[in-house]
Amino acid sequence: MLKSIETIRGDSQGLAYQFPVLRFDGTDPAAPSAYLQAALHADELPGTAAIDALMPKLRAAEAEGRIRGRITVVPVANPIGAAQYLYGDHQGRYHTGTRVNFNRDFPLLPTPDTAGLPDDAALLPADARLKARLVALSMGHDIVLDLHCDDEGLDYLYIHAALWPQMADLATDLGARAVLLWEGSSDAAFEEAALHPYLQMSPDADGLDRRVVTTVEFRGRADVDPRLAATAGEGLYRFLVHRGVVADAAVAAAAPWDGVAVPLENVEMLRAPVAGPVLYHVAPGDQVAAGDRLATILHAPGEEGGRTDLFAPQDGLILTRRTVRTIRPGEDLLKLLGARASADARPGALED
């Protein structure tokens, strides 16, 4: 394994950010290559824990000559967000200098050629230069896995419709309960940037049949413990074996996936109409019917008529819910996966 350190110049004198990149050389140039990164939202750590559990398996495979395709691993992809604290609270989702989501506004290249990407000397904010660096590190790999998590939720994946259902083996290996299929734009999230050049090519040239690009949601923010990390790390390893990146005869073939796959427009984003403490009547994994009560907001606690109930707009699966229990008007409360398009469906990413 080769370790290198990437450096991103800060936006003020004397400030710089660094993050490690771990690389394994493959023995077979024709084998698929893989790029894995975690903690792009720097306060989402289940992916980092999963990579920590995966690495001993990769080092053992390297020692035994079983790494077939090259592998690049970035366990902590966002040193800028990792350093952001406000009054003791970690602020890892948005860059506090620009208020831009760390997983939005990535450069969308017309081809896989990264020569035109801005380097660290470019007159751009540090977060924009970090995004360009991550695209450069990932481009050219057949498999690109961006490891995230939700607030509270099930394991699920975002997958471009052009890559489904050939990526069902990943859903099986990672134990995903659901897949959200997207088309068009995801507001230039990292996943879109990693796939965009290949979608511009002809079907005969792009090799979409072997390409795997996804945002992996490993449950919720608090789901960081040895057991869950080991399970996620084993799932990542199984997938690398099944796709031929790593050789391991002891890994059984993937079983058929039995989860739920829905277009992004079928996701009901339950939004708060009023402010106040929220009481949930459902949890991730619950199946609900149209009209079931999902949450109650105490907009005037203790007063007659001071409770606002929110109900399921259609049958479906509760995928996620918010960790916080104080809600403002317009904020998202949960995701419900339905069988038909949501009346409130909007283009782009589900959340800011």
TrEMBL record:
The keyword Hydrolase applies. It holds the Pfam family AstE_AspA_cat. SUPFAM superfamilies: Zn-dependent exopeptidases. Keywords: Hydrolase, Metal-binding, Zinc. The keyword Oxidoreductase does not apply. GO terms for molecular function: hydrolase activity, acting on ester bonds; metal ion binding. Residues 31-195 form the Succinylglutamate desuccinylase/Aspartoacylase catalytic domain. Its cofactor is Zn(2+). This is Succinylglutamate desuccinylase/aspartoacylase family protein. It comes from Methylobrevis albus.
